[in-house]
Write a structure and sequence with these properties.
The longest helix is centred in the middle third of the chain and has 15 residues. With about 70 residues, the chain is α+β, with helices and mostly antiparallel strands. It starts with a strand and ends with a helix. The chain is about 25% helix and about 45% strand. The chain has two helices and four strands.
């Protein structure tokens, strides 16, 4: 099964942090927060190469619910 990697912006007042999430099927497999977008993008890109998967950029309230293998191909 392939994974889905999501970059998500977390806003805290005037500051933003970036969360990299790794989803397998409908469950969250791992998550880590980075202080800036370039750092998060580097990690997401490297993980995507390792997992052979796709990266999506999402807003703070969007979750990749019901993602299937076909959706990640």
């Amino acid at each position: 099964m392939r994974a889905l990697i999501r970059l998500r912006e977390i806003r805290q007042g005037k500051r933003s942090r970036w969360n990299v999430e790794i989803w397998r099927g409908d469950s969250l497999d791992g998550s880590r927060v980075y202080p800036d977008r370039p750092a998060a993008r580097r990690v997401a890109r490297a993980a995507a190469e390792d997992y052979g998967t796709v990266v999506i950029l999402a807003g703070p309230d969007q979750a990749p619910a019901g993602v299937s293998q076909e959706g990640c191909a």
